[in-house]
């Protein structure tokens, strides 16, 4: 990537997409953890002790632990939103040449990232606290992390400056892969640690208290402890990997650093395996079978590697035999072969150079497809005449360049859509019956009994989205199907399936479902109006500028490249925001009623928060629905170049992104608690975080300007 102004790019900027992914996933898990706190929630109300259904159990059993978890989780959530905003601002400033502001924003970004990860660790420690073992182990690991970082920073400050090797593509690709691995490992272990395997007790019986893990103290107590130790180890190791990949000052010894990172990766993977084996079953033989699967997979991989190596060795020997045969039979064979193959070889090499330049231009430029089309028509004719089969691949890329540039994001969207629809199918909205009845059995969906049509609408829409996501994953890997518009059809079907499932499963009446679906249409109408009114003047003067300015095409090409970069960042945010809000809308905070409430007239399967505080639930529902429909509309717009280019240039999609962030924050404040005072604290916390960011930006800017003057 070009470096405007010749400035050096920091680790944070070079990994901005992965920082955005990390911050969004942290926001995802903290958003869900705020609605489903550790220890569970009360299923029934008890007016005698001033208890309401849906309140966190640990709020009554261990208030200090609840406050520690709640505010640490909220701080991590708010910090993640700030990181998202900072990364987007940083990218826009860099693209527009605002180099002066990059250094202050990078300093703020580092500080907020540290606060984000520390808050996440604090929330995990408070949420997983159950006994002496969990407390001591969490404290020891936390102290070990702090000591490790302090020692490495001290050693790095004394060591000579390491050579900058960021130009190497292989280490950079490895760094990005490790960032993805550590990000997903941290998010998975955070959620698993707060929701213990087997669930939690919601009443006192046989010596246990409400909020205690069901496996604690019984025959599976050792299994629960093994799960906690392995899961916590994987969580802390993944955080250490993230810190080491983001902090270049820890690179005092490249060799030692590589060994440490690979060691932490091995610890993370082994701990994930141990946590899954301990928590996914209750029998020793089943645990052994699960662990043996890893060995079987490793053996299969080794067998495949051996076959590939043998095949390559045999093919190499065959080529050597074919090339050496004429030399042994005729001493002049080499001269004859050089004379006959020389022109063909030079012509093929020229074709390969032209093709590489063409491919490189297609991958690096982010704009005018028509210019590439003309160039490819000029260069493809000699390639075709020489029998070069790569021309068809270039033609396939030419058919749909927008999808080729966003293959990884399309794959991410399809993967996450498959994950959330899979979970929604297993845990349908409305919950499951806890006992047998005349028209249902234990474990049947409550919504299927109370509203069969709505449940079937949700079920089929969710299933269509799930299957379309799997099809999209396969189509992304199969490039030959792109020009048949099969991938676009699968993605559109996936998105509309998500909209239908959300509208059917997130509410219980037709009018609310219509309002929810109308939000997506309202977003599209707003974007069209915004683009039409704000680009009208530009269209009127475009022809005059094109005739007067000889460098108009060059400026247009540069502007289109910046538009493509912004599209990828907005698409990444929209994909992950849709993931957050889809799950929260189908499983609202506080859970569902397991029986009819004659006092309020609510039925089984209705949201507990709706039964207790209808206004608060309405605020949560519409904030969450606005964010979800905004995200889906953004994804639809960002896939089509004819739609997203004018929308990005007019900042219409930036306005939608800001509205989506505000909706997520409003939904979190309304749904994470049923107490007005705590909701006010959330908004105060958000204001404090934003004020701190502005203050730090001003401080770093002053420091940067003083250094520049000196």
UniProtKB/TrEMBL annotation:
Residue ranges with Polar residues bias: 319-348, 356-367
Chaperone keyword on record: no
Keyword Transmembrane carried by entry: yes
InterPro entries: PGG_dom (IPR026961)
Pfam families: PGG (PF13962)
Residues covered by the PGG domain: 11-130, 172-282, 403-508, 564-673
Annotated region (Disordered), positions in chain: 319-402
Annotated Gene Ontology cellular component terms: membrane
Keywords associated with the record: Membrane, Transmembrane, Transmembrane helix
Protein name: PGG domain-containing protein
Organism this protein belongs to: Zea mays
């Amino acid at each position: 990537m070009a470096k405007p102004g010749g400035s050096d790019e920091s680790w944070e900027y070079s990994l901005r997409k992965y920082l955005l992914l990390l911050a969004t996933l942290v926001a995802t898990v903290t958003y869900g953890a705020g609605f489903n706190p550790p220890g569970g929630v009360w299923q029934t109300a008890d007016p005698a002790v001033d208890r309401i259904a849906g309140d966190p159990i640990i709020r009554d059993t261990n208030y200090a632990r609840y406050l520690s978890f709640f505010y640490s989780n909220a701080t991590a959530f708010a910090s993640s939103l700030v990181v998202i905003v900072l990364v987007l601002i940083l990218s826009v400033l860099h693209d527009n040449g605002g180099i002066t502001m990059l250094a202050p924003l990078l300093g703020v970004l580092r500080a907020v990232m540290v606060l984000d990860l520390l808050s996440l660790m604090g929330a995990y420690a408070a949420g997983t606290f159950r006994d002496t073992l969990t407390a001591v182990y969490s404290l020891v690991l936390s102290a070990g992390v702090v000591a490790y970082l302090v020692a490495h920073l001290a050693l790095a400050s004394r060591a000579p400056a390491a050579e900058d090797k960021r130009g190497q593509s292989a280490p950079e690709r490895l760094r990005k892969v490790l960032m993805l691995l550590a990000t997903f490992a941290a998010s998975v272990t955070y959620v698993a640690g707060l929701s213990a395997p087997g669930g939690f007790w919601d009443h006192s019986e046989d010596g246990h208290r409400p909020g205690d893990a069901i496996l604690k103290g019984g025959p599976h107590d050792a299994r629960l402890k093994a799960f906690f130790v392995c899961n916590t180890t994987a969580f802390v190791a993944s955080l250490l990997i993230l810190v080491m990949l983001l902090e270049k000052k820890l690179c005092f010894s490249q060799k030692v650093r590589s060994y440490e990172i690979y060691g932490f990766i091995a610890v993370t993977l082994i701990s994930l395996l141990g946590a899954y084996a301990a928590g996914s079953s209750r029998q020793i033989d089943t645990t052994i079978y699960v662990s043996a699967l890893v060995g079987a997979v490793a053996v299969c991989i080794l067998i495949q590697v051996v076959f590939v190596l043998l095949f390559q060795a045999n093919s190499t020997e065959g080529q050597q035999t074919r090339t050496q045969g004429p030399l042994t039979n005729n001493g002049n064979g080499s001269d004859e072969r050089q004379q006959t193959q020389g022109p063909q070889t030079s012509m093929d090499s020229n074709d390969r150079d032209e093709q590489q330049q063409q491919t490189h231009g297609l991958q690096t430029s982010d704009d005018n497809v028509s210019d590439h089309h003309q160039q490819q028509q000029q260069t493809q004719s000699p390639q075709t005449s020489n029998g070069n089969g790569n021309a068809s691949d270039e033609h396939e890329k030419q058919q749909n360049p927008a999808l080729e540039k966003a293959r990884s994001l399309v794959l991410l969207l399809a993967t996450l859509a498959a994950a959330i629809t899979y979970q929604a199918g297993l845990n349908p909205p409305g919950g499951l019956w806890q006992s047998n009845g005349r028209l249902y059995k234990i474990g049947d969906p409550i919504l299927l009994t109370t509203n069969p049509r709505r449940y079937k609408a949700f079920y089929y829409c969710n299933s269509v989205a799930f299957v379309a996501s799997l099809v999209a994953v396969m189509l992304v890997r199969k490039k030959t199907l792109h020009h048949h518009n099969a991938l676009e059809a699968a993605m559109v079907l996936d998105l509309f399936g998500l909209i239908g499932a959300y509208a059917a499963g997130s509410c219980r009446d037709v009018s609310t479902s219509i309002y929810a679906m109308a939000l997506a249409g309202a977003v599209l109408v707003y974007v069209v109006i915004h683009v039409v009114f704000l680009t009208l003047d530009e269209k009127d003067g475009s022809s005059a500028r094109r005739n007067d300015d000889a460098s108009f095409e060059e400026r247009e090409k540069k502007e289109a490249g910046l538009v493509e970069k912004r599209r990828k960042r907005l698409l990444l945010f929209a994909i992950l925001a849709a993931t957050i809000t889809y799950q929260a809308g189908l499983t609202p905070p506080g859970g569902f009623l397991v029986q009819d409430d004659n006092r309020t007239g609510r039925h089984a399967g209705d949201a507990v928060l709706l039964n207790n505080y209808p206004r608060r639930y309405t605020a949560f529902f519409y904030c969450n629905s606005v964010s979800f429909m905004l995200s889906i509309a953004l994804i639809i717009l960002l896939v089509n170049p004819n739609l997203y280019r004018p929308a990005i240039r007019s900042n219409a999609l930036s306005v939608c992104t800001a509205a989506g962030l505000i909706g997520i924050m409003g939904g979190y404040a309304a749904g994470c608690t049923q107490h007005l005072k705590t909701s006010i604290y959330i908004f105060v916390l958000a204001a404090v975080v934003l004020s701190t960011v502005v203050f730090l930006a001003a401080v770093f800017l002053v420091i940067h300007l003083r250094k520049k003057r000196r």
